[in-house]
Design a protein that fits this description.
Elements lengths: L1 H29 L3 H42 L12 H37 L2 E7 L4 E4 L1 H7 L11 H4 L3 H13 L3 E8 L4 E12 L5 E10 L1 H36 L6 H32 L7 E5 H18 L3 E6 L4 E5 H17 L6 E8 L3 E8 L21 H6 L6 H11 L3 E7 L3 E9 L2
Parallel strand pairs: 7-9
Antiparallel strand pairs: 1-2, 1-5, 3-4, 4-5, 6-8, 9-10, 10-12, 11-12
Helix pairs in contact: 1-2, 2-3, 7-8, 8-12, 9-10, 10-12
Bound molecules: adenosine-5'-diphosphate.
The site of adenosine-5'-diphosphate has 22 residues, from helix 10 and helix 12.
């Protein structure tokens, strides 16, 4: 850049000097008066100044502008441009600087976009992320991590992991990741304000191009839902085994007693055989209910939707229910709007009516009342089963739809209940996109409401 400016300037000055000497010599030949010499020198000085100004405007100014722009670019302001018109090498230099600035600006925009995308991905991953350097300082935490462990990112970034993460399992994972330089997996529980979370942590080492350990990434998976499902599955298997065990033990026990000689006693024989028959019945009911539930839960389960006439459906089931009610001297009344129609799976719908009515009859004492009402709203078919029975304690209401949940275990088993009736009802209502609610008062009675969309 120096040569661009100085070369023409030096040639200008040499030119002026030559001009001054030649003019002075010529004039001193003509006259020896000093005044003339000084006048000439003065004129030439003016010319020199004008030439200098011209040189400054043409070369010095654009170079100054270029230097200023380059300084801005160095500072990171990629929007800086040179707007000074210049020709020749300086002009070319300026236009190259502008191109460079434009390229830098595009690169910076791309980099910003990539950084934004990366931050969005990191912050929206459904796993907690922590980035550690080789000394154990935290460099990054994402949103999910904050939602699991609380506080803000400022409380973690820049600190040593063991100073801000008070969890033995995390410390062990980091230590083992650094020690063995391979992925390490652990799990632990984390208490939050509301409940307990099950967390799986994976520590993965980070290496540089020379395969030297540069830090680690910790990934935290919230496996609470999976754990809950696993617990539910285990509970279910335990419950089924328990439910099957009771009648089987009873059948086996009475059969053994008969074989051991009770056969000789006719009254005992009949009594034991009746028990075996009833227990067998219970087993059958339980297995049927389990099969129904498993069918309803299958992914490929499809409802057999047809137009169901409620009046006809009730004609099929009410006589059996009336018979049961009569045995307990319960007054069963049916109130239904005429001509009710619904698009539904008839067999499943029947099961909803039966299970709710059977429960109402079981949990209502002799002389009580059970009322079935069916009517329609604008979009829904509404059925309700109301009884004047034992009622359900308030704290038990949210649990009665769980499999095998019983308010009074002994009583329910004695009545032959499988503990699956309401779970099946809820499932059927839900696969029809309907809703079921309960109102109950202890020792006064219970009402179940079912709302099913008409189409
Ligand atoms: P179960 O075969 O034991 O009746 P359900 O799933 O049908 O199983 O019902 C679950 C529990 O809900 C019952 O054990 C009982 O405690 C309670 N329950 C259901 N219906 C009624 C009702 N109409 N009145 C009082 N309690 C009821």
């Amino acid at each position: 850049m120096r040569s661009i400016f100085y070369k023409p300037l030096i040639s200008y000055i040499i030119g002026i000097f030559l001009l001054v000497i030649i003019t002075g010599c010529v004039l001193s030949l003509l006259t020896s008066e000093y005044i003339i010499l000084f006048s000439v020198l003065f004129v030439e000085f003016i010319i020199l100044v004008l030439i200098m100004l011209h040189v400054f405007e043409k070369y010095m100014n654009p170079v100054k502008m270029a230097t200023k722009t380059v300084n801005e670019l160095v500072k990171g302001n990629y929007r800086a441009r040179i707007h000074h018109p210049a020709v020749g090498s300086v002009g070319e230099l300026n236009s190259k600087i502008n191109i460079l600035a434009r390229n830098l600006s595009e690169l910076a925009i791309q980099e910003q976009m990539q950084e934004k995308q990366l931050t969005t991905v990191i912050d929206n991953t459904q796993s907690g992320l922590v980035l550690l350097d080789e000394k154990g300082y935290i460099h990054l935490v994402n949103r999910k991590f904050i939602s699991i462990f609380g506080k803000t990112s400022k409380d973690y970034i820049g600190y040593l992991y063991y100073d801000v993460l008070n969890n033995e399992q995390i410390h062990r994972t980091v230590q083992q990741t650094f020690l063995y330089e391979e992925n390490v997996k652990e799990s632990f529980t984390q208490m939050t304000d509301l409940d307990k979370k099950y967390i799986e942590i994976v520590g993965a080492p980070i290496f540089n191009e020379r395969k030297l350990l540069k830090g680690a990434v910790l990934v935290f998976y919230d496996i609470t839902e999976l754990k809950k499902l696993e617990i539910m599955r285990k509970d279910f298997v335990a419950n089924v085994s328990h439910e099957l065990k009771t009648p089987i033990t009873s059948i086996k026990g009475f059969a053994e007693t008969l074989l051991d000689g009770a056969m000789e006693d006719d009254t005992a024989k009949e009594k034991f055989l009746r028990i075996i028959y009833e227990e067998g019945n219970r087993l059958q009911l339980l297995i049927e209910d389990l099969l129904t539930l498993s069918k309803l839960e299958k992914d490929e389960f499809r409802l057999n939707i047809t137009e169901v006439k409620i009046e006809e459906l009730l004609t099929d089931i009410i006589p059996i229910m009336k018979h049961q009610a009569d045995k307990k001297h319960i007054h069963l009344s049916v109130i239904q709007d005429p001509g009710l129609l619904i698009r539904a799976d008839e067999e499943r719908l029947k099961q909803v009516f039966i299970n709710l009515l059977v429960n109402a009859l079981i949990y209502t004492s002799e002389g009580g009342e059970v009322t079935l009402s069916v009517n329609e709203t604008d979009n829904h078919l509404h059925l309700s089963v109301e009884d004047t029975g034992i009622g359900i304690p308030e704290e038990a209401i949210p649990r009665i739809f769980e499999r095998f949940y019983r308010v009074d275990k002994a009583r329910s088993r004695n009545t032959g209940g499988t503990g699956l009736g309401l779970a099946i009802v809820k499932h059927i209502v839900e696969v029809h996109n309907g809703k079921i609610t309960v109102e109950s008062e202890l020792n006064r009675g219970t009402t179940f409401h079912v709302y099913l969309p008409k189409n």
